[in-house]
Structures are given as C-alpha cells and as structure tokens.
Design brief:
- The chain is of the alpha+beta class.
- The chain has two domains: 276 residues, FAD/NAD(P)-binding domain (3-Layer(bba) Sandwich), CATH 3.50.50; 106 residues, Alpha-Beta Plaits (2-Layer Sandwich).
- It is built from nine helices and 20 strands.
- The strands form six sheets. Strands 1, 2, 6, 7, 8, 9 and 20 form a seven-stranded mixed β-sheet that branches. It has a four-stranded antiparallel β-sheet with strand order 12-13-11-14, with helices on one face.
- A hairpin with a 2-residue loop joins β7 and β8.
- α1 packs parallel to α9 and α5 packs across α6.
- The longest helix is centred in the middle third of the chain and has 25 residues.
- The protein starts with a strand and ends with a helix.
Length: 400
C-alpha cells in the first residue's frame, strides 16, 4: 500500500500542470498516465499548436495570459523552436511547437520534482472513497498496485473518474453535436518548406484527385502546416466526420475503427501527393500518431457550469483561478472551424467552482473535463487553457 497526498489521473497538458503544481508545494503526488509517454494530444496525437496561451487582444504585442506553469512551458517551447514570438494567425496568437520536444520537456520537469511519482503505461482500474481518502488500484505490465490519496484530480479528458465514482456527475454531449476528432500526421523529406502559395496549390491538387475518383471526398478536408523546426517536414491534419451521430469517443472499439480508417485516408493522400505534387515528390515517410486528437468526450458537472455567454462577455469571478482567452472554436463538422470571438478583446475568468463538486468531496477536475457547457468547451478545451486549469486544480488539491 502506497500513500499519497494527491493523485492525478491523466498525463496530458492539464495533468502535467496539476502534478507539477501539487508536488511543488511539497505534497506527495502520483501522476498516472495510460500512454508510455507524457504529453497527451500535444505529444501522442501530434497536435503541434498551443492555443490559449496568450492574451486575446492582438492589437498589442503578445502577452502570456496565465502565469506560472503555462508561461514556463510556453517560454521553453518557444525558445526550443528557435523563435522569439508566437505566430499571429488571423485574430489569435498561437505557439507552434515540436510534439516530441513537449514530451521531453514534460518528462524532464516531472523527473525534477522529488515529491512527484510517475506511473506511465498504467491503467486506473478502480477508485472508491474510503473515509477521508481515496483508495484506488492501478495496473501496469500485468501487475496491480493499491494506493491511497487524500485528494484526486481528474484530467483524463473524458472525465473517466466521474464514470467510475459519480455517474450522475458525468456529462456527455449527443453524438451529432460532439466536436469532431482529428488525425494529425507528420510528412518528412519534402523538397523544401511550404510557401504562401502552397496551401492553395495543395487544395487544388486534392480537389482534382477527388473529382477524378483517385481520392474520396474526405481528402478535401486535409490541411497542411509547416513544422516549426524543420524545413523539410509538414504536419497534415484531417478533421474527421467519424460516423456522424454514431461517433462515440468513449467506446474503445469505435475509437480504434475511426483511427484505422483515418490512417488509411492519410496514407492515400500522401501517396497521391508524392506522385502529383513536386514538393512532395521526394517525401520518404509519413508518421502516424499514437492517438486521435479527440476534442470532446465526457466532462464533470461541478458546482458551477461555465457557459459560452460568460466567456463571450469576458465575465470575471471572485473565485477565478485561471483565465480563458481563446475564442469559441466550434468543430461540430469536419468542414473546418467556426470561430466566435469574445465581445471584447479581454479574457474571461474560470471560477474554482468549475473544478470541483460538493457531491464528491476530495475530487477536483481540469482540462477538457472541467465543468462547462458544450459551447464553452469550444474555448476552454485548448492546451494553453488546460495547462492553466490543471495548475489550479493541482494547487487546490494540495490545499492552497
């Protein structure tokens, strides 16, 4: 039996920040992650843009929005990419980063904390309240370990701990409204970097392929973005319909089926481009991600449900513990995003009540599974905001 002050479930952006924040107070902290490496979608799904790190007013030079761990990680990734400022894309600042560097940074930061214990490639198989503590079992490589923790933080992205211990607090949107998932892959060995004309040329190439029957219509949803560190690499992103109303990211078999179908489509697009586009003629490899980029699955219903209206009005709260600055980025179809910006270029507050519920004492939640409505999730699900809410949840769990 191992005893901790704080257990964090999920090693993505929110979980990393929660574990670091809790352990840096001296709290004995355990971080449990299902994958072999930390980083969540920012590493395992090859999501290569950090959104939500900066103040939403782009009429001024970029300013970090949330101090502490979000700024610490953002500054490192910016330096590692060889640039001194983020990219301005339309009306938002984004930080393009190398996913492998984010994974390395997460591992290094966690290893530096003496109060933090990591269990990667591990599943949380049971969780129950036991007096004033939580008792849980993790499984890794066929071995189970029983532990206790005074407080627990759910950053699983799917509110998996709500499903385990409080099903009435587990909220899942209807299948047809769920934000569509994405597949992001890396293409290497290009003849050179993308120039300003490349996106239109690539789109025209794919349209011709669809019209000729060489590629399915879904190929027209492919988008391309230059790697921030290598001129001969690009990231290709495919937004997926994933079966429409039948999409269920909580069902592992369905998730795997969509992933395999997306891999096949991405491979077909790559092979077509190597044969029909001069920039891709020398491409030698396409690297598929370990995970799909799942934008929405399950979330907690907490003491306060953050709404899209509160975000659009840049509402502030007495108990706010983080700021949201990313616009509402709706992706309910695979036809690209629909942005709805805040009414004024000012951030909105996220109250502590969105990170806990009186119904389940000793439980906190952050990242994509915090308490908000479906529309508000379109803003707060991005990695920069997940870092900020994760940091806040870790501090709350440690008693700060």
């Amino acid at each position: 039996m191992q005893t901790f002050d704080v257990m964090v479930a999920g090693g993505g952006s929110a979980g990393i920040a929660a574990a670091l924040a809790a352990s840096r107070t001296g709290a004995r902290t355990l971080l449990v992650e299902r994958s072999a490496q930390l980083g969540g979608t920012g590493a395992n799904a090859l999501v290569h843009t950090f959104c939500g790190l900066f103040h939403p007013d782009v009429s001024h030079p970029p300013q970090w929005l949330n101090p502490g761990i979000p700024t610490e990680i953002g500054e490192h990734l910016l330096t590692a990419s060889g640039r001194n400022k983020p990219d301005l894309m339309g009306r938002v600042y984004v930080l393009r980063h190398e996913p492998a560097e984010f994974a390395r940074l997460a591992a290094r930061l966690c290893a530096a904390e003496p109060a933090l214990t990591l269990r990667t490639a591990a599943d949380l198989v049971s969780l129950r309240r036991d007096g004033d503590s939580w008792r849980f079992i993790t499984s890794a490589e066929g071995q189970t370990t029983e532990s206790t923790a005074r407080h627990v933080v759910d950053t699983t992205g799917a509110a998996a701990l709500a499903a385990l211990c409080s099903p009435e607090s587990h909220v899942v949107a209807e299948g047809e409204r769920l934000y569509r998932p994405a597949l992001v892959c890396r293409i290497t060995g290009l003849a050179g970097p993308l120039d300003e004309h490349a996106p239109l040329q690539l789109a025209a190439t794919l349209v011709r392929a669809v019209r000729s029957g060489d590629l399915p219509a879904a190929a027209m949803g492919a988008g391309f973005r230059q790697s921030p560190v290598r001129g001969d690499e690009v990231f290709m992103t495919l937004d997926l319909e994933a079966g429409g109303a039948a999409w269920n990211p909580l069902h592992q078999a369905a998730l795997e089926a969509v992933k395999q179908e997306a891999h096949a489509l991405a491979g077909a697009i790559w092979r077509h481009l190597t044969a029909h586009h001069p920039l891709f003629a020398s491409s030698d490899r396409i690297v598929m991600p370990e995970q799909l980029g799942v934008r929405e699955s399950g979330r907690w219903k907490g003491d306060h449900v953050l709404t899209a209206q509160e975000l659009r009005e840049s509402r502030r709260f007495e108990d706010e513990i983080a700021l949201a600055g990313w616009p509402l980025e709706f992706r309910e179809t695979a036809r690209g995003p629909k942005f709805v910006y805040f009414d004024k270029p000012e951030p909105a507050g996220i109250p502590a009540r969105c990170l806990r519920t009186a119904e389940v004492p000793g439980m906190f939640f952050a990242g994509k599974c915090l308490s908000c409505d479906h529309e508000a999730l379109a803003s707060v699900r991005v990695m920069g905001t997940c870092l900020a809410t994760g940091q806040a949840a870790g501090r709350l769990a440690a008693g700060l």
